Amino acid sequence: MKVPGRKPQFPPPEAPVRDGRERVVLIGLDTQERAGRAESRELTAAARQARDASLRPAEGAKAERAPQFSAAESLAELRELVISAGGNPVAEFLQSRDRPDPATLIGRGKLAELAGTAASVDAGLIIFDHDLSPSQQRNLEREFHARVIDRTQLILDIFACHARTREGQLQVELAQLEYLMPRLAGRGREMSQLGGGIGTRGPGETQLETDRRKIARRIRYAKAQLEDVRRIRAQQRQRRELVPVATVALVGYTNAGKSTLFNALTKAGVLESSKMFATLDPTIRAVTLPSRRKVLMADTVGFIRNLPHTLVSAFRATLEEVQRAALILQVSDAGNPLAAEQAAQVETVLGELEAQDKKRIQVVNKLDLLPPAEREALRDGEGVVHVSAAEGIGLERLLEAVDDALQEDPLSVVRLRVPQSEGKVLAMLEARSRISGRKYRDGLVELEARVPASVLRKLKGFLVP
Hints:
By secondary structure, this protein is α/β, with parallel strands linked by helices. It has helices at about 30-40, 45-55, 70-85, 110-120, 135-145, 150-160, 165-180, 205-240, 260-265, 310-315, 315-325, 340-350, 370-375, 395-405, 425-430, 455, and strands at about 20-30, 85-95, 125-130, 145-150, 245-250, 285-290, 295-300, 325-335, 360-365, 385, 410-420, 435-440, 445-450. It folds into 4 domains: about 20-155, Rossmann fold (3-Layer(aba) Sandwich), CATH 3.40.50.11060; about 165-185 and about 205-240; about 245-405, Rossmann fold (3-Layer(aba) Sandwich), CATH 3.40.50; about 410-460, Alpha-Beta Plaits. Helices cover about 40% and strands about 20% of the residues. Helix 3 (about 70-85) packs parallel to helix 6 and helix 7 (about 165-180) runs antiparallel to helix 8. The longest helix is centred in the middle third of the chain and has 36 residues, at about 205-240. The radius of gyration is 28 Å and the shape is elongated. Mean pLDDT is about 80; it is low at about 1-15, about 35-50, about 55-65 and about 185-195.
């Protein structure tokens, strides 16, 4: 039995009719099954405490199901994606059904109504907040007389816009080709037999077969190129691993502020933007911790709800930095009301990358956007640090937490007696250790310091028993 859908939403009358952007109609689908899952959004106190501690279920919260986005929240996120892609959402519609229609997803009755809506607002593109099968996409395009795409195609398009390096472009191309391959069938008369009549007879080949062969060849080429990228990355990683320098990876939902935090910690100057997926190509920079140890920090692509499997596999070469990281900084937006839902999606993607068991610190970002009373009430805990990357609040505490969490190149508190003539040794201690005490006596410098193991090996002759 169908449930009446929500009426389409239009921009206010004073909104400009044209602004040079493509006009888009957004359509979401709400089923009873999905609504039932949304009821689990309210967390118990134990589950909320577990989320704040490590974003993984605590022992007392194992029975809690991961919170899910509601259909309306998912449609709002789709709107942000469209804006990031340069589109202009001119109407939205949320259809409620018991189950998706196998032919058109939303049913024939609502399809006719929505086709009229799309024509009345002069929309050239219809985007569904739901994966469409190839047959559903063809049926919908016939009814709408406009282009119809789904959420996955939209994400792929955004990725294609933001890819800057050759590696990023190859990864996007591979994901797009793998998505396109099953959707080639039956796209009109151009798929009919190539030849017919005198002078054209022979074994022949349909246009569909020709296109599939070309796409398959291009997929093989992209995969081979990405294997070369992966091999070069592995060689670079092996060289890095010869030196005891740990890698710290920033992960989190898209638009959580990872790039802003990365710039604040490394002064790298990577692109900061409120648009979704502004960061696509990874960046790695060195950071000096309070103990004077150095770590490599990696900024990665943001995660999102129902990240397409083609993207996860195509971007595996990039996301290997997450898999090999010694520590993960999981960044979240302090003021986002969907923080729990986003955290559950990040956990899902980390599971697909087999990185869910890595040591983590939860970094609650955008503290400056909270009201003063809420900001004062927040307290850092074990594995949780509250920061504002934009304002530089809490960054020292975050570096201290990273310092304490890393086991690579362990620190030792030692006493040293170094002749003042050993200027190189003293300079090395000044640069690469944390000196807590210093005395000068008879041409010697007596020091007490926290020294990394890699430096301590060079100081054996100066240790005081």
